[in-house]
Amino acid sequence: MYENKAYMKTEGDINLTDARQAWWGDQVDDAVRSILQEDEDVFLHQTLSSPCLNVLSACEGIYVEDAQGRRIMDFHGNNVHQLGFGHPEVIAAVKQQLDQLSFCTRRYTNIPAIDLANKLVELTNGSLSRVLFAPGATSAIGMALKLARAVTGKYKTLSMWGAFHGASLDAISVGGEGAFRRGLGPLLPGAEHVIPFNSYRCVFGCQDEGHSLCLKPIEYVLEQDGEIGAVVVETIRNTDVQIPPISYYRRLRELCDKYGALLIVDETATGLGRTGTMFAYQHYGIEPDMMVLGKGLGGGVFPMAALLVKEELNKAQEMSIGHYTHEKSPVGAAAGLAAIRVIEENNLLAHANEMANLAKLRLQAMMETYSLIGDIRQIGLLIAVELVTDRVTKEPAVRQAEQVMYDCLEQGLNFKVSKGNVLTLSPPLIITAEQLHEAFDMLEASLAKVENSKSIQ
């Protein structure tokens, strides 16, 4: 059973369980089942997608709608949905750009791309002043790795086990999720890994608030190896929501400077307001050497990613670091500009923090009521609810987490399960207090149902 294969319980819930089979049997009609079969017959099978859960027919705001007409609050959204889905200002900007300049041929540039690049630089207060665009964040990670080699002359990297930086061969090399890496070696040489920070299940048993022991392996590798050119980290671990303390990142910045390694932060899933600031690294008062953006940069409409770097790294004139076909997509840039404009003009950062406070109160009350909840981790509107069978032993409640997920889906709430037992909730930044309460009512009803069934067994 997959429950015994920890490497499969990482990025999200999988489609190999009895619960998934039961869902298909109970929740989809014959017409939808036929479409799902067509999908299964034509797409390559992989654990996190085909065979798929369901068929979607529409999306708007915080909702997706399935082929049977059921509206579902989406707290998953592949993290592209800061503005929800189909935001009218983003759609209008894309339509206008399609009519004006739909593609930019290589060797040329265009005003939307320049404007978006300048806007992103402005949002970093000018600390990251050079930009490259790409069709997806996986490609942007690849650009960052190439630039790090070019600038430092070192090919080695240091990153975290359990991290996700994309699904291409170079990205899975610095990534640390077994479901993406296993059976695919040899990967990039020099991609070193250490045990990641984990506030709830700290391997090192840190007793201090700064988790200083968690930094010891990083310092040891940087010192002993001497040839690490870059440290690659997700500023906030998105799937199970690991939030290092301020002192952790400030010390990491010091270590990178001391041993000549560039600090690359991957904000693909956490940038653009998800954590309550425009970029997650801004919580820590540090400046990375590079930052990768993606997902929500295209406004939930268009695939768009970016690499932002410090001025002193602009040293690869004789190389092609990116040079992708859609590198300076005017349509993608128009979507990105519109998304940022909506965030700023509608004060969505302040609104997200207000909704985060509401969520915190509801979740604290649930934790006091339901022993299934072992830990709650939250920053902005990025939330992890970790389920355990016992709060003392912290035994992961894998079966119960899956039950909660499918029960919530049946009620009309979508989220993903990470690490097998962590409910990962990412509401759109546009969500209202009423909608948030409605979603948490569904979650609480599911927790009560599953916990009561557990006590009866």
From TrEMBL:
<keyword id="KW-0808">Transferase</keyword>
<dbReference type="InterPro" id="IPR005814">
    <property type="entry name" value="Aminotrans_3"/>
</dbReference>
<protein>
    <submittedName>
        <fullName>Aspartate aminotransferase family protein</fullName>
    </submittedName>
</protein>
<keyword id="KW-0663">Pyridoxal phosphate</keyword>
<comment type="similarity">
    <text>Belongs to the class-III pyridoxal-phosphate-dependent aminotransferase family.</text>
</comment>
<dbReference type="InterPro" id="IPR015422">
    <property type="entry name" value="PyrdxlP-dep_Trfase_small"/>
</dbReference>
<dbReference type="InterPro" id="IPR015421">
    <property type="entry name" value="PyrdxlP-dep_Trfase_major"/>
</dbReference>
<dbReference type="GO" id="GO:0008483">
    <property type="term" value="F:transaminase activity"/>
</dbReference>
<dbReference type="InterPro" id="IPR015424">
    <property type="entry name" value="PyrdxlP-dep_Trfase"/>
</dbReference>
<dbReference type="Pfam" id="PF00202">
    <property type="entry name" value="Aminotran_3"/>
</dbReference>
<keyword id="KW-0032">Aminotransferase</keyword>
